[in-house]
Design brief:
Elements: E1 18-19, E2 23-27, H1 33-40, H2 43-46, H3 59-71, E3 77-82, E4 91-100, E5 108-115, H4 124-139, E6 145-151, H5 155-163, E7 167-178, E8 181-191
Parallel strand pairs: 5-6
Antiparallel strand pairs: 1-2, 2-3, 3-4, 4-5, 6-8, 7-8
Helix pairs in contact: 1-3, 4-5
The chain binds coenzyme A (COA).
Amino acid sequence: MTSLQAETPSGALPAPIVTTPRCYLRPYDPRDAPAASSLANDAEVVRFLRDRFPHPYTLDDSHAFIKSTLEAKPVLDFAVFATPNGDCAGEFAGGMGLTPGRDVQSRTWELGYWIGQKFWGQGIATMAVKAFARWAFQTFPELHRLEAEVYHMNAGSIRVLEKAGFTKDGVRRGAACKKGVVMDVHVYGLLRDELGGLE
Ligand SMILES: CC(C)(COP(=O)(O)OP(=O)(O)OC[C@H]1O[C@@H](n2cnc3c(N)ncnc32)[C@H](O)[C@@H]1OP(=O)(O)O)[C@@H](O)C(=O)NCCC(=O)NCCS
């Protein structure tokens, strides 16, 4: 057992911050680490993410990330749990988080997310993004704009953002390079004022 694993607590799990018919989000708990590393250790997931998302994704990577999320003030990264058939315990399905911008863009926060492959196509990301965006604007009064950057070939994520009410603000041509492949980055935004029009 590593030093990180030794810190695993017992007792109640953190309470959900948002609940939808298909999933809920709550702060991470060290007990999520095995499920998180198992789902995150997937080339099909990582190819759409930044290089700082480790690959392979080990149990220690998972423990280190979860520890960092719990030390953050405020906590801005959350675990997504699938709740098929209204199962209130749920099953770890992925992650979603916010990164505040800096300087004059401090009121623009980046939204990031991933869902494990076995949960794809169940509407989980769409519901989670919609509910999490609402929670973010309600929780952080200073937040003015949520932003997401998507690689041009990530049709699933583009669809998620569009269904969640984000607007495509532009394309940063050739802005990203992963494994030697240059990609366009599509920039999506959702402003606080636009939240009212969403269901
Ligand atoms: C992108 C991702 C979050 C989608 O999660 P999901 O829970 O499967 O998404 P949903 O089930 O809510 O699907 C939303 C829509 O996208 C569509 N979609 C999903 N995957 C798709 C794909 N590969 N190609 C085309 N459309 C796709 C769905 O059909 C659905 O549209 P519809 O309701 O009109 O049928 C998930 O595939 C993922 O985590 N991928 C790897 C990491 C990643 O890309 N993160 C986002 C980085 S910007």
